């Protein structure tokens, strides 16, 4: 029933995983096979996301999918670089992504950022599947380009298949250690109770049809109600990144998950101090690949409807925060919308103490994740903020009472040039890392050594 597609929005699929495990390659392959299906025109590239319509997905999945079983319009994939905190992917009431693909290199298994992704998926209750990637690197592998995984497995030697199985069961065991019961996806009866593992190769495309099938099935079965939105309502979204763009100044790369955003709309955006109230000057989408060579990277569009990624250009966005809410005001009182944004920001506010460490993180979501991890480790926080490490942070850290608290913990942030000399002369210890638990472990080791 395709008329439903007018009111059901596209599910948002986050692709997560450890650095180099193949997230971008997997998306490239999905895009590439769509292109070779002769459906290149159907794929729309968004800011930070790729929209693949249902017809294209069913074309790629071949006989694994019957498109008449589905009425969702397709899938919107968001790529998250492994070094960047995907904890930005938050939205009103929890996770921005409706569903996630956790990419794990079959040979490497779980790695630090895999563990972090799992923690966030657990905390936000986001349904996910595991893409056990790079099966083609199994010694003696006989590649079956683009084929469903069962067909590919049938073409392997017994030895290659058993080597792959060993790696797959290792991953299933690691998922179980993390508290998730998992199995190879074709053995999973109930995807609400068990995590499906899809063996695949982003390089050869084998197993990719299976992944698309599982994703469509999951979103159709468990999320249809959440996908029903007022497509003409005032837009709601989340800032993925704040970026300076030549000719536009500070812009926000935004994922819109509800309603519609129009050029000229008044919006309220979560800022580092107060909410920012501004008016949209331009809505920007990447130009098709062949046009990117030209000077202009973007195309101006009049409106975007959920779900979509879009770059918003507007005055005063330089104090916007990654992970913060974006709300279109439209026919509502401005004060009401400001209060909404404030309430959402308050949800993420970190409990601070009289004495403790200074925490800096790249996004609101990662700040929240840091605060949770520090609470568990019983490390008090004096101040927690989004942004790079500035002289002011060093001054604040110096005011801590206990010596062990004269420390700054920076997650995915830089030390600003003008803070370097200050740090040298101050009695403050700086820890930076892009893995939360390693950052906290480093700090704990330092405290233990100090106490010795
Ligand atoms: P970050 O964005 O840095 O976190 O990495 P990523 O997860 O996006 O990984 P990416 O797709 O950039 O792949 C990392 C490397 O693994 C590249 O050299 C890819 O060519 C390679 N790779 C990815 N998938 C496969 C696969 O299925 N098989 C093989 N043999 N190599 C792969
Ligand atoms: Mg990548």
UniProtKB/TrEMBL annotation:
Every Tr-type G domain range: 8-224
Residues that coordinate or bind GTP: 17-24, 79-83, 133-136
Keywords annotated in UniProt: GTP-binding, Initiation factor, Nucleotide-binding, Protein biosynthesis
MF terms (GO), sorted A to Z: GTP binding; GTPase activity; translation initiation factor activity
Function in brief: Function in general translation initiation by promoting the binding of the formylmethionine-tRNA to ribosomes. Seems to function along with eIF-2.
Similarity annotation: Belongs to the TRAFAC class translation factor GTPase superfamily. Classic translation factor GTPase family. IF-2 subfamily.
Protein name, entry field: Probable translation initiation factor IF-2
Gene label: infB
Whole-protein coverage range: 3 to 454 of 597
